Each structure stands twice: as C-alpha cells, then as structure tokens.
Amino acid sequence: MMVMEREAQADYGKPATEQAWIFQINPDVFDITELIAGDEAEWPLRQHAKDVREGDQVIIWLSGKKAGIYALATVLTDPSPVENTLEQQVRWGGHRSGKVPPATVMIQYDRVFSDTPFLKTSLVNHALLKDLRVIRLPRATNFAVSADQWASVRAMIG
User: Fold this and answer.
1) How far is the first Cα of the chain from the last one, in angstroms, to the nearest whole number?
2) What CA–CA distance (Å, rounded) separates 123 from 76?
3) Which residue range forms the structural domain that includes residue 52?
4) How far from 98 is each of 103, 105, 110, CA to CA, in Å?
5) Considering the domain boundaries, does residue 133 fall inside one?
6) pLDDT tens digits along 90-124
7) Residue scoring higher pLDDT (148 or 7)
8) Chain-centre distance of CA 77, in angstroms?
9) Do residues 105 and 77 make contact, with C-beta atoms less than 8 angstroms apart?
10) Total-model pTM
11) Is the residue at 90 inside a domain?
C-alpha cells in the first residue's frame, strides 16, 4: 500500500493522514552543501501537486553520480498554485518549455546528511528501498514513498 493513497482534491484541502515523499534535486542546479537543518525553502511540485499536504514528510534526494538521501524535511504549507508568467518560467527553469510547476510548497529541513549521505549505491541492496521510484524511474521531481519504505528510511537513519 502506498502512503500517497488519498483522494485527489482540486481545492488543495487537507487530508486526514500524513504521507512521505521524495523531492529530487539536480546537483547542476542546487548546491547540496548549502542545506542547513532548520532552514526553510520553497519547492516545486511537478508531480503530486494535489496530494502533498502540510505535515507530510520529505526525503531530499540528490540526483547524479552521488545520488542518494541528503536530508529529511517536513512540508510546512499546503500547495500554492503557480501562475504561468514569464517571471515564474525563468524562476522554475521552464523558460525553454513555457511551463512552470503546477504548485509549490514550503518545507523545513529537519536533518541534513550532506557530509554523510545515504547513497543510492548502498540503497539498491536494501530489501525495500531498492524499489524506491526514484531509483527505478528517476525522471521526475516528486515521488510517493510507501509506508514500509518510509519506516525503513527512518530505521536506517535512526
């Protein structure tokens, strides 16, 4: 059962249960060493914009050669729609395609592991985490995490 199972709500209303997500970042766009526990940041929701909610838990995943878990965070706000303006296209990297993410959320970094990340090279051997969608099909930004996978991440991190 996926943690992300809940009714899609067009009005971005709050659901009854929390979920866990992976938010993936590109090392060519973002310097992972800048993450500081307690800091807040605005994150785009290119997928699952109707599902992510305030209070949900987030795994920050760096893509690329050193792919893996670099931080844990909490969603602080429900999604806010993004207007498709040129300014927003440039801000979110959609100026070439004319697209912006459907919504953004504010998150707070709770724990940061940029010096000692949990790398994909070790996670691919884990019984449950090898099936994380970011490992199997990494061509997205936001991924749902199952309840069992989230429990495994929490146990691994301690």
Assistant:
1) 23
2) 28
3) 20-157
4) 15, 21, 33
5) yes
6) 666 665 666 667 788 999 999 999 899 999 999 99
7) 148
8) 14
9) yes
10) 0.81
11) yes
Q: What is the pLDDT of residue 70?
A: 96
Among 3-7, 57-61, 109-113, 138-142, the range scoring the smallest mean pLDDT is 3-7
Helical H runs in 30-85? none
Q: Sign (positive/negative) of CA torsion 149, 45, 76, 69? A: positive
User: In this structure, is residue 84 part of a structural domain?
Assistant: yes
pLDDT at 46 over 90: no
Ramachandran region, residue 11 (left: φ > 0; alpha: ψ -120 to 50; beta: rest): alpha
- Spatial distance between the Cα atoms of 13 and 131, rounded to a whole number of angstroms: 30
Q: How far apart are CA 119 and CA 124, in angstroms?
A: 9
Joined tokens for residue 122 = 């070790």
- Tokens (6 digits) for 86: 């040129």
Domains in the chain: how many in total? Answer: 1
Tens-place pLDDT, residues 64-96:
999 999 999 999 999 988 777 767 666 666 656
- Any idea what the Cα angle at residue 28 is, between residues 21 and 92, rounded to 5°? 65
Write the secondary structure of 4-38 as one string of H (helix), E (strand) and C (coil): CCCCCCCCCCCCCCCCEEEEEECCCCCCHHHCCCC
